[in-house]
Write a structure and sequence with these properties.
The protein has 164 residues and is an alpha+beta fold. The protein is 29% helix and 32% strand. A 7-stranded mixed sheet has the order 1-2-3-4-5-7-6.
């Protein structure tokens, strides 16, 4: 298995994984739609970074680090944090056949290191309250529940945070 940051050449596999995850949701409120302005910046390092785990050439898991404060402002404020001090882990996806392998924890640790290296003081994540695996992974990373929001009036989210 190889873990590395994604680049434009990985776009098709990333889109395929997003489509797979969206098609397998236990509840549509677990995954807010990806806004077009965010999708346009998938490979813009000033906005975000995706890290992926590959089995050979196949992308099996991915996690994003959102750097642009406008993408996570409501979540940061719900945790009583200044968005300028924050980076957010999000859009975490694992192929169903690879779940339970701690891939997300490993990638999240690397994203946390990256956030620290670019001068962020906090790392946050927003997860559906019923996503037990997602909540557990964030707790294993060292994050704690800091608030709740109803994103876009439809998507309940528990906000996790930790200083880095």
């Amino acid at each position: 298995m190889e873990v590395r940051y994604l680049n434009e050449s990985d776009k098709e596999q990333l889109e395929d994984l997003i489509e797979l995850v969206e098609s397998k949701l236990p509840d549509p409120t677990w995954w807010p739609p990806i806004r077009p302005e965010v999708r346009e910046h998938f490979f813009d390092r000033d906005w975000m970074r995706f890290i992926g785990t590959f089995d050979g050439e196949r992308l099996v898991a991915v996690a994003g680090l959102f750097i642009e404060p406008s993408t996570f402002k409501a979540s940061a404020e719900a945790a009583d944090l200044d968005p300028a001090d924050v980076a957010e882990i999000g859009r975490c996806m694992v192929r169903p056949s690879r779940r339970g392998s701690n891939l997300m924890l490993s990638m999240s640790k690397q994203l946390t290191d990256y956030a620290r290296a670019i001068g962020r003081e906090w790392i946050i994540a927003a997860v559906h309250p019923d996503n037990a695996a997602g909540c557990r992974s964030l707790e294993q990373l060292g994050m704690e529940e800091k608030g709740e929001i109803l994103q876009d009036g439809t998507y309940p989210r528990t906000i996790f945070a930790m200083p880095i």
